[in-house]
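Consider the following assembly input.
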Amino acid sequence: MLITIDIESPEPLFAQLVTQVKTAVQDQKLKPGDSLPSIRQLANDLDLNNKTVAKAYRLLERDSVIQTRGYRGTFVHPDARANSKVDLQALALNELQRTISSLRDAAVTDSEIRVAFADLMHNRN
Amino acid sequence: MFEFNLFHLAFLGQVLLLSGYFPAKLLGQMNFVAENYPPDEYPKLYSRPAQHYVNSRRRFKLLNAVIFLSGLALLAWFMASTRDLSWDGPRITWFYLLQLLPVILMDLSLLKEFRLMRLADSGSRRQAELKPRRLFDFVSPVLFTFAVAVYVAFCLFIVYMNQFDYSWFGGYTNIYIITATNLFLVAIGWRQLRGRKLDPHQAPEDRRMKIQNILLIMILTSIAVTLYAGLTITLAALELRHLQPVTLCLYFQVLAVITFQAYRIDGRNFEVYRKTPLAG
């Protein structure tokens, strides 16, 4: 199966990789247990930085779409198909939208929301 | 006298094969590509002006012709002079290195060509196979095991030979040299398997074919190098050193036959170099 990235696309490169792997899983081009290339191999083949591919793999692993089995390599997760349908970005957007709406209803200004959001994110990091 | 005739025949074979037959084959391939995949239809294949490639081919032809004639001159000298055959090894080796020169220059030029291709590549889309490349996807485990077995057998042979007090015997240095050579071959194979794609337009199936080819060459070379080292020591131990130049000539020819496979272009997808690719 071929993966294609567009380096001029406004979508970040790691996000393109994540989307394409999830799409391949949903289309059953990638099946549970299929092995994936190593980070270095894929980065070399796509002429990308290792960190970009590592970030995509980290996100896919977080979403339980892939799993790393030590030195044996990276494989498609047994529940990858179900897990690849969960769009965490959409979930985050919905949650934030709901929170922002309720804050606005309580007469909190956008500027105050931004400062509060930045503070929380800053503290979290 | 028989050994001399045998050696002259083997050396003539080396000259004909390495400076005649293979260069002619390579030139034939270069001309075939130039005629069938011209720059106006396949611009991605050429990163320099057309005249540059004409000159390169001419230089390659000339250099090989000079080396071919030098080989014949050396053969005439071998036939005319009276000498101890066992001293011809270094002369043949130096001549072999000279025979490799045009191919080495061609390879360096090709590397530069790929670099220019990558710089000129204005496409924003990049493709890769979402499949790991593992050694045994490309190479037969039996062949690989055989190469390892030959290496282990060589090491045991050296340990055995080390018991005897031969003044010419290098002892464990033989193991170090063969190990270093094998590690070098492994590094080349590893680079092919996991390294960056040199040609930015190369089709995935072409890349797989190329990797398979190179890995096979590396394994066959490893077997040939190790066996030859063992043979050289055996000949010396049996007081048959005068046969070494013959075996050396044959060894160089075997190596040439193996490595020539890396330059074959049959089956390659040239459509990826078209202005508007039709495939790949």
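Chain B has eight helices and one strand. Ask yourself how this observation constrains the way the partners meet.
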